[in-house]
Request: fold
Amino acid sequence: MTAQPTDAGPLAQRQLALVDLLDRLLAGGVVITGDLTLRIADVDLVRVDLNALISSVNVDVPSPFEEEESL
Amino acid sequence: MNELRYVYAVTRPFDGVLPEGVRGLGGEPPRLLDHGDLVAVVGAVPAEDFAEAPLKKRLEDLDWLTATARAHEAVIGAMTTVTCTVPLRLATVCVDDSGVRRLLDAGRDRFTTTLERLEGRVEWGVKVYADPQPDPATPGPAGSDGPSAAPRERPAAPASGRDYLRRRLSSRQAREGVWERAEALSRTLHAELSQRAQAAALHRPQDSRLSEARGQNVLNAAYLVPRESSQEFVAEVGRLTPRDQGVRVELTGPWAPYSFAGQAGQAGPDEAGTGR
Reply:
């Protein structure tokens, strides 16, 4: 039997794999919809201080969190 | 008005300074914004990337996302070396400093509670994979070794149709066995480790097309552990890890407690073990 690389027990890794990092930085994580298409799940949760944006820019900005489930 | 405020993290006022050479988004060092008993770690970012509409597009560009996530991580990593830090979700953006202050005001209670909860704690990640495709094993006579011997990648050509079918069947059984063992192990690991941790969080299993990891991710969990108990926790993961071909356990950390900051800003991942 060939030895598995993890046989010696798990080792702490210093460099976070990108996917592991994204799991943590984005509550919804990243999903793959096609072979090459990546989407952030729950993009709507991105916290943009929109009220402030609207009032300070004073431009007609479309309604903050329209659900756009464009799939 | 073409700059917005990106908020990396929230901390308490602390003695000392930001570690030198920390670079956040756009290669710019982050700045501390004091507001009452909280401090926001912020950076200026261009509105053409971070205003809501462009941001949604940007977030789906993997290269941009990678660079942004790495910059965010760099700042959080640097902050955790100097003080207890609540990492915010990627792309928490305010329009200006007063927006950041409002963010702190609005979340004051949650930030304060979370800072207390995270003080002196680190996060460890534990993943379990079912990996029915073994490493190419040493060739030997078919069907002569132990129960549920792992299927071989390139067995000798079957002598007959019956041989072939028998081999197909046993390799399918081996695969199913791997799945069952991986799931059983995931349950055991999660139960045992949750007891040893102060909190546990489950992330959704990773898609292997994205992680490029071998096998299928069955468990993708995070545990909040006191920094000084890390060694024991790691040893426990080692003890619970079977020498099982086809089932793999991966441990990562220690990390800043990203998975346990969710309650501070917004709903986090499916978090368990914090009671109530």
